[in-house]
Amino acid sequence: MQTLPKGGSFLFETTAPRNIFTPEDFDDEHKLIAETVTHFLAEYVFSRMEEIDAKKEGLMRELLVEAGKLGLLGADIPEQYDGTETDEICTTIIAEKVGATGSFAIAHGGHTGIGNLPIVYFGNEAQKAAYLPAIVTADKISAYALTEPGSGSDALSATSKATLSTDGKHYILNGSKTFISNAGIADIFIVYAKIDGDKFSAFIVDGHSEGLTTGAEEHKMGLKGSSTRSVFFDNVNVPVENLLYEAGKGHVVAFNILNIGRHKIAANAVGAAKLALDESARYANERKQFKVSIARFGLIKEKLAEMAIRTFAAESAVYRTGGLLNDMMHSLDRSGPDGGRITAKGIEEYALECSMEKVFASEAEAFVVDEGVQIHGGYGYIAEYPIERLYRDARVRRIFEGTNEINRNLISTTLIRRAAKRALPLMDAVSSVRSRLTTGIPVRKDAGDLVQATKDAFLFTLGIATDTFGDELLKQQEILGRLADMALLAYAMESAWCRAQKAVMNGQSGAKHKENMANAFIYTTVEKVILAAKEALANLAAGDELVKMQANVAMIFQYTPVDIIALRREIAGEISEAGKYIA
Amino acid sequence: MKILVCIKQVPDMESKFKVAASGKWYDTADLAWRMNEYDEYAVEQAVQVKEQVGDADLTVLCIGGERVKETMKKALAMGCDRGVHVADDKAAEKEPFEIAGIIAEFARDKQFDLIFTGMQSQDRGSAQVGVLTAEMLGIPSISTIVQFAYADGRIETRRELEGGVKSIVKAAAPALVTCQLGLNTPRYPTLPNIMKAKKKELLSLPVADLLKVDARQETGKMYFPVKKGGGLVLEGEIGQLVDQLIQILKEKTGVLA
């Protein structure tokens, strides 16, 4: 096996297409699991969307129980606790497929992802044995309670308190949590609170405990079928054995779980984007104006194409990340009692990639659902059409699991910190770009070269930003945001590019279509990278110095544009002929 | 008890089909593949019998290239115990007598008590393989079944006749049945069973070892049906309509000739 790439190393290393995982690499089991999930959702979930979104009493639990019968709740849980330890690709496929369902995806994700992974990764033997088998069957439904009214992005400022009882047998929990998915149906809550007011810790709390109450259902913009409530703790007794991991180590649990949570959110976004495109492509074929289907109009073709292109890039980034997480898990010895923690630690290596794909995929989805409504015209604004729901359901994905702003900060600060610790030789890479700029960077010939140009631009800007601000750079959010944009766009571009190249090398059917999508994505996205670099540099320097920097940016991005209109027409042709997203 | 179920991998019927360059079959490029619908009923029924009797060994057989293993794994994940893959990249060129010959040759000395097949395949649609296989093995066959029960070495089935009529047909095992829509609702494999199926035996045999019969049919040509003209709605007075109709019948058909 190849050695695992370090998280973030793609920014200065060349990635060989054969080394990334792509959906074309699915094995028979992956395909069968995809088929099972598709069947399940069609039969049980999509057929009952109206009842689900009307929060029909007991329905969500019923659906989770059905999902449990097919093993769709235990994909992350070891076999000894009745789960089916599959691989990270399987769980990505499940997350992608359920993503299209909106509300059910949240109930499923709240239960299987963030709701049970804290126990899977950080629970002790007794905790796992007590809770996991019941989670696999949805006998007990779980929820993750981190956010508080006053602490969202600043999660560690939580004010919920846990105090050890005088007999030492219980923690007495007081405080409140807000926006808790599954709160109305949960039997188990993973709750974060500070022991003695300062040791941030995680607890497994029985949802039926005395003193635990939930508020009214929130009336949300979207995801209307998923239960979202506040949860209140009024002297709730939590047995000491329900402390998860170690006292004062709640942040380790919380943040590591969020990495996988972000990966799954990104997969959710891809699934929803695909459905939005499917609906839009079909509608465009059926809807006739001026006696022809609107799919034949140039501006509609551009929309369909761009929706497909961004979905393709997001899908490529998500499965590439799934592959990285999978390789990481397989490289670890997770057999011991500490296996879960070892896994979580391993996953942390790719925290950056998880944040990048989450930001990129949720924003790609936002674009896709928005254009989807536009293609539907007035009908897109009517609740009868699924695109209306997809539009509303998509919005929160840029907010939860860390807002995209927090994730952008995280991406840049993590990179800068790893560079400072010399865990990543980013500064050497910066020097290398600088020296190449003095000897001259040749004209970029293809999309692959432009991926390299994007990385060069990131490194060049990072170098200037570090020179200008030093340690203060960590406080310059506007610069951090632009650096993060360049990095995450490089990741998405490279993922799309490598996937297309891999398909070409393997002589796969549809390789040309993939190459078209990768090319279109890269040639249009590179302009966003140039803008981000220019804006950042104009803030970092002025006068002659800035003139010189802009000349450097121009040198990094010497290329001839391609005929993007023709490319999009060709892509739209494939999509319209299939009447759905194809890659 | 030993049970055999025979399955075929066919293209997703929503695919866009093209005639292959040979002109004798469809082009297999760019197609998505799945289990023949009728074979899913066969697998489901076979698994139900196995669950009913408990002590049974269920083999799934499929003829085709490497690609068919994915479909076989689905059958294994649905509950078959072992798989026999008859490796044949040219399976699509074989006609029903040859396919039946291969299955019969494999099954001859294995003492299967029950053999399940689909009523027909969704792509070739000959509906001959099951009954031919039974004939070659010298066992009774019941085709197009929509109900099945097994007890004490005997089977009782309902088979579909024309006009919605059904007949009850009984036979003693060993016997072969071909399964029709309505027989059952095939389960889809659960995640744990998909993973367990990975560890089940899946044996590959070269087709040359089993093909002992010669073809009796030949595919002449494959082509799309000629596109028929659209319907014509005549409007106007009854008398005029009749005249118009007679005129059309005379000009465009031979019915009044």
From TrEMBL, chain A:
This is Alkylation response protein AidB-like acyl-CoA dehydrogenase. Residues 454-549 form the Acyl-CoA dehydrogenase-like C-terminal domain. Residues 248-414 form the Acyl-CoA dehydrogenase/oxidase C-terminal domain. Belongs to the acyl-CoA dehydrogenase family. Keywords: FAD, Flavoprotein, Oxidoreductase. Homotetramer. It holds the Pfam family Acyl-CoA_dh_N. PANTHER family: ACYL-COA DEHYDROGENASE, ISOVALERYL-COA DEHYDROGENASE, MITOCHONDRIAL-RELATED. Its cofactor is FAD. Residues 143-236 form the Acyl-CoA oxidase/dehydrogenase middle domain. It catalyses: a 2,3-saturated acyl-CoA + A = a 2,3-dehydroacyl-CoA + AH2. It comes from the Bacteria. Residues 28-137 form the Acyl-CoA dehydrogenase/oxidase N-terminal domain. SUPFAM superfamilies: Acyl-CoA dehydrogenase C-terminal domain-like, Acyl-CoA dehydrogenase NM domain-like. One of its GO terms (molecular function) is flavin adenine dinucleotide binding.
TrEMBL record, chain B:
Residues 23-214 form the Electron transfer flavoprotein alpha/beta-subunit N-terminal domain. PANTHER family: ELECTRON TRANSFER FLAVOPROTEIN BETA-SUBUNIT, ELECTRON TRANSFER FLAVOPROTEIN SUBUNIT BETA. CDD domains: ETF_beta. Pfam families: ETF (PF01012). GO terms for molecular function: electron transfer activity. The keyword Transport applies. It comes from Desulfoprunum benzoelyticum. This is Electron transfer flavoprotein subunit beta. Belongs to the ETF beta-subunit/FixA family. Keywords: Electron transport, Transport. InterPro entries: ETF_a/b_N, ETF_b, ETF_beta_N, Rossmann-like_a/b/a_fold. The keyword Electron transport applies.
